Amino acid sequence: MSLSPAAGPVPAAIGSGGTAGPPRDRRGAGHSPGRLAWLRLRADRTALASGAALVLFLLVALAAPLIELTYGIGPRDQFQDRLDGFGLPLGRAGGVSGEHFFGLEPRLGRDIFIRLVYGLRTSLFVALAAAVLTSVIGVVLGTLAGYLGGWLDAVVTWITDLTLALPFLVVALVLPPMLTLRFYGQRDTVPAAFGVGVLIVIFAVFGWTGTARLIRGQVIALREREFVAAARASGAGPWHMLFRELLPNLRAPILVSFSLTVPQFVTGEAALSFIGVGLTEETPSFGRMIYQSLEYLQTDPAFVLFPGVVIFALVLAVNLFGDALRDALDPKSAG
Amino acid sequence: MRQRAAVAVGGAFVLVSALSACSANTGGEPQVDTGRQATGVIATDPRDSAGPAPEVAGARRGGTFTILRETPISHLDPQRTYSFAGLMTVPLIARTLTTWKDDGEGNLRLVGDLAETPGRDVDDDCKVWEFRVRDGVRFEDGRPVTAREIGYGIARSFDPDLAGGPTYLQEWLVDTPQYDTAWDFQANRTSLPPGLTTPDDRTLRFEFARPRCDLPFAVSLPTTAPLPSDRDTGVDLGNAPFSSGPYKVTRYRAGVEIVMERNEHWDATTDPVRHQYPDRFVWSFGPTPDAAANRVIADNGADQSALSWDYVPASLIARVAGDAGLRARTILSPTPSANHLVINNARVTDLRVRQALNHAIDREGLVKVLGGRHVAVPMTTLMPPATIGHRTYDAYPAGPDGDPDKARELLGGQRPELVLGAADSSLEQQVATQLKGNLERAGFTITIRNIPDDAKLDEIKKSGNPWDLYLGSWAADWPSGASILPVLYDGRTIRAQGNSNHAYFNDPAINAEFDRILTLPPTEQSRQWAELDERIMEEHAPVVPLYVDVAYLVHGAKAGGIFVSSVFGSPALVDAHVKP
Amino acid sequence: MLRFLVKRTLSAVLTLFAVSVLTFLMFFALPRDPVSGMCPRNCNPERLERVRQELGLSDPLVVQYGGYMRGVVAGRELGAAQGGHCDAPCLGWSYVNNEAVTDTLVRVLPVTLSIVVPAAVLWLLLGMGLGLVSALRRGTWVDRVAIGFSLTGASLQLYFVGAVLLLIFVYTLGWLPVPGYTSLLDDPVRWAGGLVLAWLSLALLCSANYARLFRAQLLETLGEDFVRTARAKGLPRSAVYGRHALRAAISPVITVAGLDVGAALGGTVITETTFGIHGLGRTAVDAVRAGDLPTIMATVLAAAVFVVLANMLVDLLYAAVDPRVRLG
């Protein structure tokens, strides 16, 4: 995914070089590793604060229709009579009032607050769904390649290289209109969910390489350890090996790479809108809002501020929580 | 600590917002002169076409005039140029048979440029035209321009490898749209196309099968730029044109920069409109309209004598218009570019539905979406007010913000389901959203379907395209009804693709009217086009007229002489100069 | 070593081949006519048909692909409207840009290189600096500020930061020139001045991952036996850190950096769009939107070459820096 260098194959680095620690379930005094991590997480104030923020974001996203009901304004309602002749909101700070908490968008005069609530819903759904998909693809391919090795490993490694070299942007530009035409012809109404789904698939197809590399490295390291060798010697079948011996030891790296991909997809959606691809105008999303707001930096800064701060807070919360999670799972790197 | 870092960044956001958001916006209506109408005459008196052009007050020689623009001009081959930027730039490096004397206020006069006058209708039937070539015009190597080089320029416009430019002359001369198969330039490089002759070095003669009363206008387009055949470099001419105008290209870096410097063989006394004030013009490509406007507003260094070619972006208008110090550095002018909600008449065949669409649109709200009256002015006619002879009327009066009740009444309880095809650009998406809101309020059900921005024009030009409604715009090649109404609404021209009749409107009675008016002398045509405009709207409502584009330009403090062309709505460069 | 190189090169060639085939196929699956848009305002069907012939668009896909590849390797003859003969490496002719695609690439590649290479140096220095400081001062407030700073940077959006920086430093204060590209060879000062904002914003955003990664690696290597042995032998702290820990911790950083730079060279679209600089990324996006196949192919292949090369280079460097790795 060559959208921005920051969104590159970062997870590959975590634990690369096959330096996986000793199997976790042989450590700790009486506590399971999950419980240990949970205890450490609970003791970390940053983790608590960012975790709380994430829960709040999730709740808002889930309760969007409920919020709309209470708020009394929908994401498509227009209030153009409260715009001036240039199409800018009347009043202070971009039209902030008791009725419109975050003011109004220029041009169409839609309510920013309710659009942010729905935008959060879209963005979080896209990011979480894409992250789950990438994790699944990455874990499956990484485990198979690492555990079975040989030609399968070579093939998976090559596909990983190929995916990295494929033009993410070109696909993101070309695929949605193609699929829309294929499934909805030229005149049918295209449900918003379709665009969201296509976006998730594109993210998943391009986003799994990091997880796969990471998992592959971990599996290779684990494969040679005594407890795996012992299990194998005692005649455990491949399913037992994969699910009972390997996967439990991969929980930490999977969680870590998941926490790294989520913010990548939140910002990825926004970045795609910025270059004019991504979701349509009818689907409220962070990306589109921020993209449309940026040009108003000088004439309606409040319009830039609200979506900008919310997406920053969301990504920061995910990053902070992910960082804390990493520390909790791997106490060696803790601060 | 992590939290504290976050707070610090949050503070920075607040700081940015504090830069300008403290006062309350109480509104205040911006004013634009919109009622302005074009007056246009063809100057028959040779003195009108005589050079030199009157001096521009306060202009002096010297300096570098810079033009900032996001997208490059793809090439400067006069026979292939058709973009506004190209049409406004080519006059600096090429002369044409006729040209417009334009005050930027809509007062137009067509004068001879390479020709001594705007042509002579030999038999008064618009079928045979003669142009007498002016003495003393020279190419950049000092050779004189004769009828032969002008003829060669027109001939090479038939070359299919050099496609892209206007095609009026080609199609008229061989009387078919497939002009490049009717006459093969590549096989006849030494001869002229049928109907075009040069009886002597100073005479150019056109003979047409049908009356072509608009010829004097058509030869103002750069198809008639002269070129000696030994200087024809084919596709490469666009990177190194051979100049007959006041400037010549001295540096061409594709996609990045074009530099033009004085052509010392250009003689001011032979030229009725051009000047040669700056030492050089520099086109600098790349900066977005936003960046270009900000640069020019900041007014530093070389940007002081720069023009931002693209209009001030809608989001910046409030800032520019609200700054009294910038008033002397902005130009505000309506343009002849008309925008319609085009109804696909092949699909929407019920007149009452088309009329209801006309009643339903909230033009005030639409103008707000576009960015206010510095961007767009509402329009209710087919032809833009900048057309010669234009008359204002409103066939479906709906007030400034639409009349949904009247629309519902016309629909009589039916709920038409229409598909609106919209480009996937950010702006058009918002406009489509706005229109959908208007129409659903009036009892329609609207589905918006996105079309890739770059492909939209090609798609709606295909007859049988699948959409009922789409946004269309038309900027005529000269401000006469003849280059608008028959082009857009003559149903006999409809073919499989490449249609200008986006509405796919076809009515025999109206077609007959086109034929009748087109044979009248241009001066008599204008009133009749205006009447026909109203008749088409009243009887057929083939489109919903929406708005005309407004040009809002900003330039540096030392850039002078810029005005908005009354013909093309883009900045004209013939008077440009650098102030001391 | 030789065996590794041969294997790696073969795999790289195979990757590039697959990328080119997939791009070719994808383009022809586009729901738009590839020749439309080639004569903007006045195409008639006959003229479009001629363009189609000239481009060989009616030939079978395999023939078209073969022609293209032959052009890349050995050059080919194009029609007069496409500038005639086209020397190898011939990437075709763009009707949209009206120039040979090779010329387009020659123009935009230095732009992207100028953005990415200095930015990468900056983000590496900044990231490793922050990582080093926080590892040395582990658990103190310095550690927290450094990591907090890098996390904040990672949570910001480039287009957002870019727009704010532009407004403040260029349009309001006028301290920096308007971003743009000047050739380094023409005027190094203007070159740097026009790109410095892009470098800074990229560095701010990208350093975070390096800071965290480097810190984690340092902490891990400091805990390893050979470092402990070195310290037990009484070597001074600086020597231990410098000679042993840093060296071991740097290899994963190289991996990430190599891959990041490779990906970034393929196009920094967001950066280019934000600062209005036309490099490889913007050219690619414009080409896709305009349906300009020769330019799409060229930009995609160039990007893929960077990624593949970076991948190979990383493997080689990895072996050079970390003696534990054996190439097989």
Automatic annotation (TrEMBL), chain A:
UniProt xrefs under InterPro entries: BP-dependent_transpt_permease, MetI-like, MetI-like_sf, OppC_N
Keyword Plastid tagged: no
Membrane topology: Multi-pass membrane protein
Coiled-coil boundaries: none
Subcellular location: Cell membrane
Keywords for this protein: Cell membrane, Membrane, Transmembrane, Transmembrane helix, Transport
Region Disordered, residue ranges: 1-31
SUPFAM superfamilies, sorted: MetI-like (SSF161098)
Pfam families noted in UniProt: BPD_transp_1, OppC_N
Domain ABC transmembrane type-1: 120-322
Transmembrane segments annotated in the record for this chain: 47-67, 124-149, 155-178, 190-209, 302-322
Family according to the record: Belongs to the binding-protein-dependent transport system permease family.
Protein's recorded name: Peptide ABC transporter permease
Protein source organism: Micromonospora andamanensis
UniProtKB/TrEMBL annotation, chain B:
InterPro entries: Peptide/Ni-bd (IPR030678), SBP_5 (IPR039424), SBP_5_dom (IPR000914)
Organism: Micromonospora andamanensis
Residues of the Solute-binding protein family domain: 110-491
Keyword Signal included in the entry's annotation: yes
The protein's name: ABC transporter
Secretion signal, residue range per the UniProt entry: 1-23
Swiss-Prot/TrEMBL keywords: Signal
Pfam families: SBP_bac_5
Gene3D superfamilies in the cross-refs: Dipeptide-binding Protein, Domain 3, Periplasmic binding protein-like II
Transmembrane segments: none
Automatic annotation (TrEMBL), chain C:
Ranges of residues in domain ABC transmembrane type-1: 109-318
Family annotation (InterPro entries): BPD_transp_1_N, MetI-like, MetI-like_sf
Cellular localization per UniProt: Cell membrane
Keyword Cytoplasm carried by entry: no
Membrane topology reported for the UniProt record: Multi-pass membrane protein
Membrane-crossing residue ranges in chain numbering: 12-30, 111-133, 145-171, 191-211, 296-321
Keyword set, alphabetical order: Cell membrane, Membrane, Transmembrane, Transmembrane helix, Transport
Protein family: Belongs to the binding-protein-dependent transport system permease family.
Annotated protein name in UniProt: ABC transporter permease
Species assigned in the record: Micromonospora andamanensis
